[in-house]
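Researcher: Next entry in the queue.
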Amino acid sequence: MLKSLFIKDYALIENIQVEFGKGLNIITGETGAGKSILIDAMGLLLGERASTEVVRKDTEKSVVEGIFDVKGNKKVRELLAANDLENNDDLIVRREISLKGTNRCFLNDTPVTLNLIKEIGDLLVDLHGQHEHQSLLRTETHIEMLDDFSNLESDLEKFRAAHQKLNSFLKEFRELRDKENLLREKKELYEFQIKEIDEVNPQSGEEEKLEDELKILENSEKLLTAANEIYENLYDAENSIQDRLGETKNKLAELARIDKSFLEKLGECESAFAILNEISSFLRSYKERIDIEPERLEVARLRIGAINLLKKKYGGSVNSVIEHREKIGKEYELAENFSAKISELDKLINEARKECGVIAKKLSQERKSISKKIKKEIEEALKSLGISDSIFEAKITNQAADGNDDNFISVDGKKYKFNSCGYDEVEFFVSTNVGEDPKPLVKVASGGEISRIMLALKSILAKSDRLPILIFDEIDTGVSGRIAQKVGQVLKSLASFHQIVAITHLPQIAGLSDYHFAVEKKKSGDRVVSSISKLKDDDRIKEVAKLMSGEKITESALNGARELMGLAKK
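Model: Structure for this entry, 570 residues:
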């Protein structure tokens, strides 16, 4: 929902702030008062391009800012997150147009590109009038509208999953084909490297163990001599440390029997005696294990040298050598079994193409079935909206795949181009004049007709339509009387599902508003400015009466306005 709109120094607008509400927001005002300027300014928030000509005279820049409630808009929230933008329930969109030619865009006060503003706008608003932003004028949206009405989300999700799988297989197949010659060229090199690494067969963590072992082997004589000397001093020599400590322990025991204050020291001495025994035992065992082995020393040195050579050639560490071996092993195996791998992938691709084809065919059948229903309902809706003898068609076509293109799916054994929605292309065709064949909607409909055609479509698609805000600039072009009343009723009904902002000159439409805004042009000093105000009940009645009778408001016009608005006379 568009909560508020702020416009400063834009064309005839000096400074306005408008607070919109849910439901049907109507804007009225005399011709030339600035209503369309207001819509043009809204268009900036949706990514439309701007000229420096819109900057108000004697000012440096124009500013347009809108605050949108996007709490329930999943796609907008995902797009904000994908671009690392502040992601709140309220989205602030701002455009600044400077006389210097700079055009600055902001989302939640963060500078962004115009393209991102347009992407966001496409997910928020459908703007109908003389604007590029109309979704009906973008043929790529026609299939989305048809699918929304057909409730095809479940089948579309299945197709997208199958489509993703097919694309994954095709990508792998193309990458494999691209590297075929490279694999053949490198096969001998990989074979040599595999043999070189496997002959050494380095193990993770082995290098550290070898370094420790080599250090011991290189110092084995020193270790043995020192261990013998320590063992002699501690245990084996005459009057050894163990003998003297034993005597000390015995004397402390005698003293402790006399004076208990020696008991603690006796315990400490016994602990020291036990530790000394453990050290002596370790040294005895260690002496027996130490061997002076020149042969083992040479083997360890040669292995460390071989590992260091591999490290130098393949990445600088044993782990990098092992990783390189795994990588080239897979590449060598692939080169050895290239034909089998290609054949396996080809089989998977064909199966995925058929799977996509089955789902795409079902989607196409459902679209064709529902398009007949939509045709009848839209033609009836258009007739009630003043476009008699209209013909509406949702044309569904398929394109055969080029013989040299591998990007296709199989439907009943035939090859077709495809996209994320299946293999259908949908375009709306219309004839608004009797005797004329339907032509592409984007080429034949006028601004007012486009608005009413969209109104007819939205009245059918209301509950499933994705865009929360609809803005109509020329909704009442060429209509009056009963048709105007019907247009108003459809807008009112749509306002149960969308926020509607509509400019109108017709009292039959204005009288149904939930919120009514009046635009007027007045003199301020030696300048003309446009302003907008939100009308209360009495002013609403007067404004609707003015639309009925002109500038001079009669009592009968006021009564007629009350009747249109469903208000009893006070």
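Model: Residues 1-131+473-535 form a domain with the Rossmann fold fold (CATH 3.40.50.300).
Researcher: Noted, moving on.
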